[in-house]
Amino acid sequence: MIVSSCLGAIGQETANYPGDLTGGKRLTIYVEGLADPSSGFFRVLNNGAQQAGKDLGVDIKYVYPQSVDLASYIDQINATMAAKPDGILILGIGDLDAVAKDAVSKGIAVAFNPAPSVKDQPLRDPNDVYVSRVGADEYAAGQMAANRFIEKGAKSLICVQESVGDGTQTARCAGMEQIAQEKGVTYDHVAGDLDPGKTASITEAYLRSHPDVDAVLATGQPATAGIVAAKKAVDRPLQAAGFDVSPELVAMIQAGDLDFTMDQQGWWRGYISVLELVHYIRYGLVQSNYFLTGPQIVDSANAAAVAGLAEAGVR
User: Fold this and answer.
1) How far apart are the first and last CA of the chain?
2) Which of 185, 198, 215, 273 could bridge across to 154 with cysteines, CB 3.0–4.6 Å?
3) Model pLDDT for residues 22-48, shown as the tens digit of each residue
4) pLDDT tens digits along 280-291
5) Contact, 136 vs 294, CB < 8 A?
6) What are the residues whose beta carbons fall under 8 Å from the beta carbon of 239, sequence distance 6 or more?
7) Nearest CA to 244 among 185, 169, 174?
8) Which of 67, 103, 64, 69 is nearest to 86 (CA)?
9) Quick check: 237 and 289 in contact, CB under 8 A?
10) How far apart are CA 97 and CA 189, in angstroms?
11) pTM here?
């Protein structure tokens, strides 16, 4: 088990929060991550959570399992429960309702990432075990990307799924497919890979055998680098887009190699999740709908403004 922790603020003294149901108790919130927070999406999410801790006077501890599988993740959550924190943020990689209910039975408030699509659940179920669900509407993100492609003249779209079987990425492709069908353009789903080089080879081969394809969406950061490499290799007019924000992806947009990327604003996923947990614990407040952090688009129009934020781990 690997643990990275950080105190949200200096000192352990109680604070005066009028109406605080805990009587000013110093709260501890655990973020159940999936990877080292030193880079990538989890760096941004953890940065948001840590900032919320500083702003709210709460101790934030980011932890993650040695391997990303459901059993290891549940073991990590069980270890967290043994530490008796006030709240836990769980990231959805499978059916975690049972362990969440166990945490609640022990007096621990639980939040969840991501949030459901508005089309599936516009309002929070009052019986939801989770205090809040925060994240991007992934189905809507796929729709938004497809509409953007088609508005700029695309007639044949493909969605390159970085991790086949990942529910979040499947929703992204499904949203894209729905718009393609609605607008009467060609659509296909391509199984990519977490390795950018493998995705590049897969996508290049597909593009060479399908010369009509004029727009490609990748469902994750590594696959986005792969489709950009494939675009350069086939050397033909081709719209390309990806998901999430990093300094590397912003640089691709600024260089003209990537048209846009879908931003789920991961910093907010960490910050708002901690905020809603703390406000629930202190004041009994529960938001009546789910907090959507995306989709938003980063393209040539706002890449310069986003670049510095990406370097700082905020976007």
Assistant:
1) 28
2) 215
3) 999 999 999 999 999 998 899 999 999
4) 999 999 999 999
5) yes
6) 149, 152, 154, 214, 215, 216, 259
7) 169
8) 103
9) no
10) 30
11) 0.90
